[in-house]
Amino acid sequence: MKAVLLVSHGSRSAKAKEEIEALIRKIKARSKLRVVRYAFLEIEKPSIPEGIKQCIDDGATKVHLLMNFLNAGRHTDIDIPLIFKEAKRKYPNVSISMSKPVGQHEGIVELFLDMIEA
């Protein structure tokens, strides 16, 4: 079973976490995925390793880290890949994959153009 773990930076703002929780509800409602969770790199809980474990505890045999970061940088190029590599070592029987930052998606231009028009 495939699980998606939305990975975000984390914020001290309660509103930021509420927005992530709302996004997760929308993804669940529009997808056929049984397990859709979120995790944070820092500040907020659950951490990325905790989120991966939660997905596996929910029965996932595949966990896809969906990077909720706009562009490449230290977190996406160094910090999260280290966590990703450790998770692959810790759970050798689970397929763990990771997306690119959302800003590298080919649809980002259309999204920005839509926002400009709004």
List keywords for this structure.
118 residues; alpha/beta; Rossmann fold; four-stranded parallel β-sheet; 4 helices
Please provide a written account of the structure.
The chain is an alpha/beta fold. It has one domain: Rossmann fold, CATH 3.40.50. Helices cover 46% and strands 19% of the residues. The protein contains four helices and four strands. Strands 2-1-3-4 form a four-stranded parallel β-sheet, sandwiched between helices. Helix 1 links the parallel strand 1 and strand 2. It is globular and about 45 Å long. The model has no long low-confidence stretch (mean pLDDT 97).
Q: Which quaternary structure do these chains form?
A: single chain
As for the number of domains, it is 1
Strand percent estimate: 15-25%
Total number of beta strands: 4
Task: Please summarize the sheet with the most strands.
Answer: 4 strands, parallel
Low-confidence stretches: none
Q: What top-tier CATH class fits best?
A: Alpha Beta
Please work out how many helical segments DSSP would assign. Answer: 4
Secondary-structure content class: alpha/beta
- The fold-level CATH name is Rossmann fold
- For the largest beta sheet, what order do the strands appear in spatially? 2-1-3-4
Average pLDDT number: 97
The termini sit apart by: 38 Å
At a glance:
Helices cover 46% and strands 19% of the residues. It is globular, with a radius of gyration of 14 Å.
Annotate the secondary structure layout.
Blueprint: E1 2-8, H1 14-30, E2 35-40, H2 48-57, E3 62-67, H3 74-90, E4 95-98, H4 108-117
Parallel strand pairs: 1-2, 1-3, 3-4
